[in-house]
Design goal:
The structure is a homodimer of 174-residue chains. By secondary structure, chain A is mostly helical. Chain A contains six helices and five strands, in the order ββααβααββαα. The radius of gyration of chain A is 21 Å and the shape is globular. At the A-B interface, α1, α5 and α6 of A face α1, α5 and α6 of B. Chain A binds a DNA duplex (30 and 30 nucleotides) through α1, α3 and α4.
Chain lengths: 174, 174
DNA sequence: GGCTGATAGTTTAAGCTTAAAATAATCGCG
DNA sequence: CGCGATTATTTTAAGCTTAAACTATCAGCC
């Protein structure tokens, strides 16, 4: 028969509880994943059909658009939450396409700065306008209040996840 | 200057509104994506570290676990929301690893049925238990009520997105 | 029986993604 | 100053992912 096991909630709290299936949490996680995948796949296919651009390229350009003075690869990889090595090839392809430009920092020659070219900026502006409409259309079934509530709850979720990950990291590598 | 443009909400409703930046909707979408990526990356790395298994393999096994009699590749691809061609290689690797087995349907030789092997079932059970704990840990900062509310709002979001996609499909290919 | 169209999977080419190892430049500190 | 640690990026190998083209099979219809 199963026994009670310790469940670590964060670095300070250890509660002993009877083993559970965590059914509600799992269902919530699956629903979250479903929603994200649904929206992401739709946006991906529209970007391809309408602008012949991939989602990762759009995302990268969106980051650069928010930071006109350019960003380092390190900043980009942490903002986009993708691995560092991933960006090397992605940036390379966008440079080849003339949408972005890279230059090595003069003060620290390890650092590579990336920024939109004027043509990349123009292309992104076109895409961003429609992208915004698409997102708004996908979320049109939610009221202002729904959006606000979701925002708040997802913020709570984000904080919870980060704190749990932080705690796990401390236990794994003290 | 910008002009008012029609915004299609669904197949019946067309509202004319001044062009907006849809800022709240975009922020919500980015937050949703952040939350999902956060959890997904954490689970991915734990699965790798603890069980040396990739997330797609875990997901596939989870689907088969829910349906012990096995599934066709078509069912799998629609439940997992991945492309059909994707599964061919994924299934191949799991067959090689002895975790699942495939057999051609006897009544329809186009159809391929896939199911967990006993060893795959055992391996999945071990992983699923810890996976559940990890998810519960990541969501530990949410109350029961938060989870219920999120569930409800995400359900609304899912319905909204599906309906917008449905409507777009009708306009694109009537 | 033999078309015709639809359905289930596979293949292919290109691109994305990660983890881990390697490279290269800078920083801190004695 | 010089050397070990740190930091930023690239490289590599494996695997995931998609879209589109292709193959094989089936179902219906005459």
């Amino acid at each position: 028969m199963e026994q009670h096991r310790p469940v670590f909630i964060d670095s300070e709290t250890v509660v002993s509880e009877r083993p559970r299936d965590h059914k509600d949490e799992l269902r919530l996680w699956l629903r979250l994943l479903t929603c994200t995948t649904l929206v992401e796949d739709d946006i991906r296919s529209r970007l391809r059909a309408r602008f012949d651009v991939t989602l990762p390229r759009f995302d990268l350009m969106a980051q650069l658009h928010k930071t006109p003075q350019g960003m380092t690869l390190g900043q980009l990889s942490s903002r986009m939450m993708v691995s560092n090595g991933n960006l090397t090839a992605l940036v390379e392809r966008l440079v080849d396409a003339g949408q972005i430009e890279r230059r090595v920092s003069e003060t620290d020659r390890r650092v590579v700065l990336v920024a939109l070219t004027p043509s990349g900026e123009a292309a992104f502006s076109d895409m961003a306008r429609e992208h915004g409409d698409w997102i708004a259309g996908l979320l049109a079934g939610l009221s202002k209040g729904d959006i606000e509530q979701l925002m708040h709850l997802l913020d709570k979720l984000k904080i919870s996840a980060r704190s749990a990950m932080q705690a796990a990291r401390h236990r794994t590598a003290p």
